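Subject: for your reference before the review

Hello V.,

The reviewers asked for a structural picture of the protein, and I figured it would be easier to keep everything in one thread rather than splitting it across files. Below is the amino acid sequence we used in the manuscript, unchanged from the supplementary table.
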Amino acid sequence: MSSDSTSVASATANAVAALARLREALALPPSVRVLVTVAHKMIKLRKPKAGNEIASSSLRPNVLACNRLCRWVAPHSDIFHNSILEELPLADVLKLFDVMLVSVEVKTQENYGTGCLRFHQYCDSHSIPEKNRMPASDHLLASFVTSLARKVAATTVQNWLAGLHFWHNLHGAPWFGHT
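And here is what came back from the structure prediction:
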């Protein structure tokens, strides 16, 4: 094995290890939100109600709605996480995520998490590939919104779209839902 291929293999292994550490750290509550999450630890995850199921995916673990923004990822997330870890130390990346997450009230995170759930349920029901969910095209977002017409309040749709926008920002994806 040449020294070039050895260094490439080593760099790849380091990137995979750093990404795994980031995912593990994101699964923990941010240090600045410790008091909030202590209350959430007492909440048991429930089996979804009939009609609220979501396709099983390693990208979307069964977590509380308020934790979906950071715990639910897409193939794009790995690309973004790898690129940011090449530039910044893990501790700085975690601080960045922590600050972004605490900028949103826990109740708002729950509403945003519900929007992510509904979006993925819509995508599952239409066989939208994972790679097309983030970044979501303007057509996909418009179709999702159209599917909600007369089913939920306009303010609910706006909140869910704001949640999807935040989810995209948190994972470094461009947002095409400008209209």
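For the response letter, the relevant points are probably these. The chain has one domain: 3-170. Residues 138 and 177 are 5 Å apart (CA to CA).

Happy to draft the paragraph if you're swamped.

O.
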